[in-house]
C-alpha cells in the first residue's frame, strides 16, 4: 500500500480506500462465482463488476458504494445469484451498516 507522490507517497501501490474497494469486489465476485457454479441452470460465460464510490469529507470516507454487475445471463436468474452473493459476502455485510451500499445488474453485450 502506498500513496501518490502528491500525497507524500511513492506511488508504489494502491491507497487504503482503493484496496478496500478491491477487497469488496473480490469478496463479492468469489461469492457470485460460487453461486453460479452451484447451479446447473446458471450458465454465465461473461461477467463483469464495476465499483464506483462517492467520497465524502470531514472525516474523509466513502459515503456510498455501488457495485454494477453485467453478465450474459437471464436478468431474473442473475438477480437471484446476486442476492445469494450479497448475503454471503462478508465485506459487503460489514460495510452495509456503515455506508450506503447498492448493487445493480444488467445484461452485457
Short précis:
This protein is of the alpha+beta class and 109 residues long.
Structure in words:
This is OsmC family protein. It comes from marine metagenome. It is a single chain. This protein has 109 residues and is an alpha+beta fold. It has one domain (14-107): K homology (KH) domain (GMP Synthetase, Chain A, domain 3, 2-Layer Sandwich). Helix content is 39%, strand content 27%. It contains 3 helices and 3 strands; from the N terminus they run αββααβ. It has helices at 16-37, 75-88, 90-96; strands spanning 47-56, 61-71, 100-107. Strands 1-2-3 form a 3-stranded mixed β-sheet.
Give the number of helices. Answer: 3
**Structural class by secondary-structure content:** alpha+beta
Please bin the fraction of helical residues. Answer: 25-40%
Query: Which CATH architecture would you pick?
Result: 2-Layer Sandwich
Content of β-strand: 25-35%
Protein name: OsmC family protein
Organism: marine metagenome
Pfam families: OsmC (PF02566)
InterPro entries: KH_dom-like_a/b (IPR015946), OsmC/Ohr_fam (IPR003718), OsmC/Ohrsf (IPR036102)
List the helices and strands and how they pair.
Elements: H1 16-37, E1 47-56, E2 61-71, H2 75-88, H3 90-96, E3 100-107
Parallel strand pairs: 2-3
Antiparallel strand pairs: 1-2
Q: What are the key terms here?
A:
109 residues; alpha+beta; GMP Synthetase, Chain A, domain 3; three-stranded mixed beta sheet; 3 helices; 3 strands
Amino acid at each position: 500500500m502506498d500513496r501518490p507522490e502528491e500525497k507524500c507517497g511513492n506511488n508504489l501501490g494502491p491507497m487504503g480506500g482503493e484496496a478496500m474497494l478491491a477487497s469488496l469486489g473480490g469478496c463479492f465476485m468469489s461469492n457470485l462465482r460460487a453461486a453460479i457454479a452451484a447451479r446447473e441452470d446458471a450458465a454465465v460465460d461473461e461477467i463483469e463488476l464495476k465499483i464506483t464510490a462517492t467520497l465524502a469529507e470531514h472525516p474523509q470516507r466513502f459515503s456510498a458504494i455501488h457495485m454494477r454487475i453485467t453478465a450474459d445471463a437471464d436478468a431474473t436468474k442473475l438477480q437471484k445469484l446476486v442476492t445469494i452473493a450479497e448475503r454471503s459476502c462478508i465485506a459487503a455485510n460489514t460495510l452495509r451498516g456503515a455506508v450506503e451500499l447498492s448493487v445493480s445488474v444488467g445484461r452485457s453485450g
